[in-house]
């Protein structure tokens, strides 16, 4: 078993744990910290890279304890100089990033320097790169007395999916969009709709799972064109529409997953409260009984009472911290009147 950790947007740790347990057969969640999930598995990296909620993946190389004063820093180089790092294939330029939490009298730069000293002692032929130019990246994270030394397995292309993707002003991170899709419990029979799709991040993430139909739209033809360029035409139907008047009959959609306009980023053409009221009516109208709506919104109180008014039962909710805002991710289920009789 190898110990890894995945970094994730704070608030989504338990959703990521669920993805890990579902996608990696023999995995075990070891610990959950803010923004990090530690887990063990014997699966190869190709399986680990199926984790779409994780921002980055790290393999833990060593864990030890350290004191808070500068005189303790030499413990880092001594310990790291004894580690066997031969498993690392690409031995070109390396770099160490460090973080610390607690009342230490040393800085994160001093921590990183000591770690690089340790590596250099054991592997004098490896070259130290720069923060911008390196092929191998190690991390050393100190929380009070606890030290974790790890090897970063993923780069930015992992969380941004690919470099050609176009984003709009209010685009979601693909990892957050994936968390929303994951919470909708994707099924191959789903009719899936994002009524305010922007650049189509949620639709792209949904398209990685089989579906009956994936449909999206936005009131802006400019962002709809951005979405079209990001999406595979064969899998996703794109529309310019008003999400308050969707072209679906009552009760025919299985899943609605959407990031409603919020903050000063993107304002709807009516007062935000009225907009939320109308779009929630429409979401509820088109959803099937027992259908799910996964909604990201900053209008937390309003969404709770709109849902209650409409008979949308809140299964789960996750307060997030996103781009300086504090939206909540809601998972609603439309009550099935027939079942409840
Ligand atoms: C927060 S953004 C969605 C961002 C999207 N999730 C992404 O990753 O790009 C909200 C979107 O709602 C759209 N919008 C505003 N009013 C709308 C309406 N009445 N009908 C449909 N879309 C609307 C905006 O144009 C904007 O693209």
From TrEMBL:
Pfam families documented for this protein: UPF0020
Superkingdom, taxonomy of origin: Bacteria
Domain Ribosomal RNA large subunit methyltransferase K/L-like methyltransferase: 162-299
Gene3D superfamilies given in the database record: 3.30.2130.30, Vaccinia Virus protein VP39
InterPro entries xref list: RlmKL-like_Mtase, SAM-dependent_MTases_sf
NCBIfam families (alphabetical): rRNA_meth_EmtA (NF033398)
Descriptive protein name: Ribosomal RNA large subunit methyltransferase K/L-like methyltransferase domain-containing protein
Organism, as annotated: Siminovitchia fordii
Highest classification ranks of the organism: Bacteria, Bacillati, Bacillota, Bacilli, Bacillales
């Amino acid at each position: 078993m190898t110990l890894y950790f995945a970094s994730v947007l704070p608030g989504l740790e338990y959703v990521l744990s669920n993805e890990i347990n579902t996608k990696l057969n023999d995995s075990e969640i070891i610990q959950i910290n803010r923004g990090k999930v530690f887990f063990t598995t014997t699966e190869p990296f190709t399986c680990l890279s199926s984790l779409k909620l994780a921002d980055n993946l790290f393999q833990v190389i060593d864990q030890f304890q350290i004191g808070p004063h500068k005189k303790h820093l030499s413990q880092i180089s001594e310990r790291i100089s004894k580690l066997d790092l031969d498993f690392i294939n690409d031995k070109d330029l390396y770099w160490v990033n460090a973080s610390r939490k607690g009342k230490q009298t040393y800085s994160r730069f001093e921590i990183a320097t000591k770690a690089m000293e340790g590596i250099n002692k054991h592997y004098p032929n490896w070259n130290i790169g720069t923060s911008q130019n390196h092929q191998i990246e190690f991390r050393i994270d100190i929380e009070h007395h606890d030290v974790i030394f790890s090897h970063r397995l993923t780069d930015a292309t992992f969380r941004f999916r690919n470099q050609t993707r176009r984003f709009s002003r209010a685009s979601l991170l693909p990892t957050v969009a994936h968390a929303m899709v994951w919470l909708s419990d994707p099924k191959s029979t789903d009719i899936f709709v994002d009524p305010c799709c922007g650049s189509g991040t949620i639709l792209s993430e949904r398209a990685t799972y089989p579906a009956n139909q994936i449909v999206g739209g936005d009131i802006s033809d400019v962002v709809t064109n951005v979405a079209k360029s990001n999406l595979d035409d064969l899998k996703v139907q794109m529309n310019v529409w008003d999400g308050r008047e969707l072209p679906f009959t009552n009760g025919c959609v299985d899943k609605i997953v959407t990031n409603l306009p919020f903050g000063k980023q993107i304002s709807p053409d009516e007062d935000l409260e009225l907009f939320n009221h109308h779009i929630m009516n429409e979401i509820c109208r088109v959803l099937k009984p027992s259908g799910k709506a996964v909604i990201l919104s900053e209008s937390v109180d309003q969404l709770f009472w709109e849902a209650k008014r409409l008979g949308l039962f809140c299964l789960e909710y996750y307060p997030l911290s996103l781009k300086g805002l504090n939206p909540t991710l809601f998972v609603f289920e439309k009550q099935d009147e027939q079942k409840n009789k």
